[in-house]
Design brief:
Elements: E1 6-7, E2 14-15, H1 18-29, E3 34-35, E4 42-43, H2 46-57, E5 62-63, E6 70-71, H3 74-85, E7 90-91, E8 98-99, H4 102-113, E9 118-119, E10 126-127, H5 130-141, E11 146-147, E12 154-155, H6 158-169, E13 174-175, E14 182-183, H7 186-197, E15 202-203, E16 210-211, H8 214-225, E17 230-231, E18 238-239, H9 242-253, E19 259-260, E20 267-268, H10 271-278, E21 285-286, E22 293-294, H11 297-304
Antiparallel strand pairs: 1-2, 3-4, 5-6, 7-8, 9-10, 11-12, 13-14, 15-16, 17-18, 19-20, 21-22
Keywords: DNA-binding, Metal-binding, Nucleus, Repeat, Transcription, Transcription regulation, Zinc, Zinc-finger
Organism: Nematostella vectensis (Starlet sea anemone)
Pfam families: zf-C2H2 (PF00096), zf-C2H2_16 (PF23611), zf-H2C2_2 (PF13465), zf-met (PF12874)
Length: 308
């Protein structure tokens, strides 16, 4: 007997139970009978509505046994747990690259179709989704809208802030087997491992130069595009890197160096101006032949030879 006798006539998907097929067909018919009474959300299953309601209540009943992060859905926990196990069950049929989430695989597949419809208005770089474009655009504006409630750090993405919270909790589940160093995030461990292997997976499409870190490639790419997204609020000077901007901003905070004459207390902004001024306090040497005066004896003697 056939194990999955119920087949969707629209997409060919197979189901073991008729009830599952009935629910699935609502996706094609648009029949979303379960509606949220707090917003416009609707879905085809009661379970979907129950999960959605947790967004309003803030309830997160599913807890990770490894790092104690909590999630509003069981599938969210299952997906997260793969960051601990390293499991990547979703693989690309074209290149074989594996992913932890089906959504990540879906975005990756667009690389092969070259479908990058969302273009950056500043550097013309294309992105697979509008969400990716929004994240990228913050590299130009320097916007960091997600503020940590426990310290002054801010982040360009919500996921960045969530991952940062682990640093306050002291959770470091990712271990480097080479040197024993531990990390809060799997991506931090991946970056660190490159310091052992020397791998440089991020290559500039314009000049071919390779980098160990994606952020370094992003910064390097600004050499080609001429984009300088970080500007000083005091003098409007622009910079390629935010670290360079922060160093520059300190020059506005420093008190100007004052050079003072120890004889008349007159002040100067530059040492060379003070040196020149001090000559006015030196004895004058006057040429008896032509009347020209000199502050230096050596200059006076050199001048005198012209009259000999």
């Amino acid at each position: 007997t056939q194990k999955e006798p119920y087949i969707c006539k629209h997409c060919g998907r197979k189901f073991k139970w008729k009830s599952n097929l009935t629910v699935h067909l609502r996706i094609h018919s648009g029949d979303k009978k379960f509606k949220c009474n707090l917003c416009d959300f609707s879905c085809v299953q009661s379970g979907g509505l129950k999960s959605h309601m947790r967004r309003h209540t803030g309830e997160k009943p599913y807890e990770c046994t490894q790092c104690h992060m909590t999630f509003s859905t069981s599938c969210g926990l299952v997906s997260h747990f793969r960051t601990h196990t390293g499991q990547k069950p979703f693989s690309c049929g074209v290149c074989g690259k594996a992913f932890m989430r089906s959504s990540a695989l879906g975005m990756h597949k667009k690389v092969h179709t070259e479908d990058r419809p969302h273009k950056c208005s500043i550097c013309e770089k294309g992105f697979k989704t509008k969400r990716c474009l929004t994240k990228h655009f913050r590299t130009h504006t320097g916007e960091r809208p997600y503020q940590c409630a426990m310290c002054d750090m801010a982040f360009a993405t919500l996921s960045g802030r969530i991952q940062h919270y682990r640093s306050h909790a002291g959770v470091k589940p990712y271990l480097c087997e080479t040197c024993g160093r531990r990390f809060t995030e799997s991506r931090d461990l991946a970056r660190h491992i490159r310091s052992h292997t020397g791998e440089k997976p991020y290559q500039c499409m314009k000049c071919g130069k390779s980098f160990a870190h994606k952020c370094t490639l992003v910064t390097h790419d600004r050499i080609h595009t001429g984009v300088r997204p970080y500007s000083c609020k005091v003098c409007n000077k622009t910079f390629v890197q935010i670290s360079t901007l922060k160093s520059h901003e300190k020059t506005h905070l420093k008190k100007p160096v004052v050079w003072s004459c120890d004889q008349c207390m007159r002040t100067f902004s530059k040492n060379i101006q003070l040196v020149s001024h001090k000559r006015s306090h030196l004895p004058k040497y006057t040429c008896e032949t032509c009347g020209e005066t000199f502050s230096k004896l050596s200059s006076f003697k050199s001048h005198g030879r012209k009259h000999q």
